[in-house]
Amino acid sequence: MADAQHKPRNKQGKPASDDPVLIALGEQIASRRRTSGRLQQDVADAAGVSRSTLHTIEHGGSGVRWEKVVAVAGELGLKVEFSDK
Q1: H/E run at residue 34
Q2: Consecutive sets of 10 residues in the chain, 85 residues long: mean pLDDT of each?
Q3: Domains plus CATH for the chain?
């Protein structure tokens, strides 16, 4: 049963903000992390951010520096880009 502690939970948390753009970004990052079977701590360590920062990003929280979001996205094989509406 020890393995259950080392696998990502497929748990949806409450959004940390009301901003739909941040929430969508966080959901995409969390989904990619879970699909890849990685824990928040593992991704955070590899991206050079704290686990609490990754948690904030995944829950659409504001106040996270863009370079940290980009580092997490890159670690998960994603890139951040802007497009026309």
Answers
A1: helix 20-35
A2: 53 70 94 97 98 97 95 96 90
A3: 15-75 (1.10.260.40)
